[in-house]
Amino acid sequence: WLKYNLIENSELSDSYSKITNSISISSESEVFKNLKKELSLALPKILNNKTKFQNGFTNETTLLIDTFKNLPTDLKPKIQKSIDSVNEEGFIIKSIAFNNKQLTIITAKKEVGLLYGTFKLLEFMQLHKPLTDIDVVDSPKIQLRMLNHWDNLDRSVERGYAGFSLWNWQKLPEHIDQRYIDYARANASIGINATVLTNVNANALVLTPMYLEKVEALANVFRGYGIKVYLTARFSAPIEIGNLETADPLDSEVQKWWANKASEIYKRIPDFGGFLVKANSEGQPGPQNYGRNHVDGANMMATALEPFGGNVIWRAFVYSEHDDTDRAKQAYDEFLPYDGKFKDNVVVQVKNGPIDFQPREPFHPMFGALKKTPLAMEFQITQEYLGFSSHLVFLPKLFEEVLDTDTYQKGKGSTIAKIIDGSLYRNKITVMAGVSNIGTDINWTGHPFAQANWYGFGRLAWDPYISSEQIADEWLRLTYNTDDAFVEPVKRMMLTSREAVVNYMNPIGLHHIFDTGHHYGPGPWVDNLGRPDWNPVYYHQTDTEGIGFDRTTSGSNATEQYAPHVQDMYNDVTAIPEEYLLWFHHLPWNYKLKNGEILWDGIAIKYQEGVDQVKTMIKTWDASKSYVSEQEYNDVKMLLQIQLKEAQWWRDACLLYFQTFSKLPLPDKVEKPT
Ligand code: GCU
């Protein structure tokens, strides 16, 4: 989306040239250098002319980029009101009559706002928006807009489908790959301001001096783009790399070890963000190994980071094979008693749904229920359960659905977006995290359209209220072509792609019926794993009578974890939105759906609909051939063929398996498996 295509419309191009004819920049700081570099790269490409830069404001200046405090004194009153309304990372782009001339200004409280403003101006140009009367006042609504890389030190990426990890630990710290810089540019252009470099299943080695030197080199690149570096911290690190015998958070030696580690890191990286921690989850070590709890563990690390302004992001992705409670209930049960007990610099990071990044889940019941603890949203951008990088699935549609959901925890209107951006409970730290889908692939993300998921995540982390439709529209125009005849149908294709994957993988509330380990293809029949809570049969509970997981009052009662209004809705089979039906209800095969179909037919028809939607996606892409390059066309076309084959595979495998229980024929509309 930073392609900077030439603008062929000369009227538009001339008007942009007038504005960017003479650009005044006053400082040589890293941020200023980077925004100047971006303009020098972009403007000649967009406008086919050379850009003139000046030191400080002069009579010739047409575009002035400076922090508010450095603006010419006579100019300040014209901007004062706007500047008062933006936050520390916000910016203003304004066209103003000044000294009998028209001047465009990009200003902000801090330099980083200027960077965001510059990218916004370039975005507007790429979108062919009029700039003559531009008046933009914008601030991010969430403080930490963060990528979580699940990258290992050997450069493999857990659940990564776009090549290897970008971080070339072997060549660091000396060798700064251009890709680190391009990565930072791409992130800054959409407002991402934090990155966790390493996997949540952490290797403690990254905290040793040899690696910290390399982390420092990356932090030095990212700083000039407003991006702070975080690391995952393995809870048992004091034992593994510190020669201690315990990692007990109440042990004073352990506390000292973490305090010293924090101080060592901050000496190298003064703006280090902090630690992301996966503790007592899926076999990872944690405070419970020592009879302590999440608060003991998180607060101990928070105390170590506190003097330096660092944060602990403590994950709530916990469930245990020793607990026979419904897995969907365990995190809430475990964390609710600790609400309000964490230190101020702790945030608890919660996945969007209570199981694990399924194509569709109801929202995680912790959202809104913990009222005194800041909760971070954890989305997954990498498509672990959504066809990896082979399937085209536009995730902002999923993110939007979650963010717009009303938890009713503080009455009607208690949406997840309001919980995450802090406006509902006024929490001090706000975070949205996305598990990255970026790797060494030539196009960064494996599937060309998976870039839209990175882009869209960033846009929603900046403003969780914008629509997925707007995101798709912008991304297509920036990335491929601004012609409406291309954008409109391809946008529709993107917007239906998420429902398509739900239909051909997990319709009507089915979930976690993926084959073992890789989570790619179907495996609803799997029933022999070491942990029962990893077996797909646990999740669909199919028998000759029917299908679905009873999580209502007659079953696991997971519904009790939601606010009363939501409980009532989910418990009532006639009130629950049908997309969550089998998540919460076990129903007979001949149960009548709202459209009159029996459940068995309804499931089968949904699987078919998913396949048909992919067929339509292929038609749409075929019709777009003339708007993209041959290579771009072929690349996506081949991937869509894989998607079709696999949608059919999902349909056939799941229906043939479920049919051994339902013993009912497939409805006519459904293609018969070959
Ligand atoms: C999923 C994923 C794991 C990951 C885990 C987590 O279960 O399959 O690879 O480690 O989530 O979020 O911690």
TrEMBL record:
GO terms for biological process: glucuronoxylan catabolic process. GO terms for cellular component: extracellular region. It is an enzyme of class 3 (hydrolase). Transmembrane segments: none annotated. Its EC number is 3.2.1.131. Residues 1-121 form the Alpha glucuronidase N-terminal domain. Belongs to the glycosyl hydrolase 67 family. This is Xylan alpha-1,2-glucuronidase.
